[in-house]
Amino acid sequence: MTTGFDMSLVQRGARLRRTPFHAATQRHNPQGFTVYNHTLFPIRYRDLEEEYHHLLTHVTLWDVGVERNVEIKGPDGFAFANLLTPRDLSKCRVGQGKYVLITAEDGGIINDPVLLRLGENHFWLALADSDVLLWAKGVACNLGMDVELSEPDVWPVQIQGPKSKEVVQALFGDEVLGLKYYYFLERDLDGIPVIVTRTGWTGEVGYELYLRDSRLGDDLWQRILDAGKPYDIWPTGPSDIRRIEAGILNYGADMTLENNPYELDLDRLVDLDQKADFIGKAALKRTKTEGVSRKLAGIRLEGPRIEFNETKWPVSAGGEPVGMVTSAIHSPRFGNIGFAYVPVGLAALGTSLTVHHPEHGALAATVVEKPFVDPDKVIPQS
Question: Which of 85, 216, 293, 339 has fewest C-beta within 10 Å?
Answer without folding.
Answer: 293
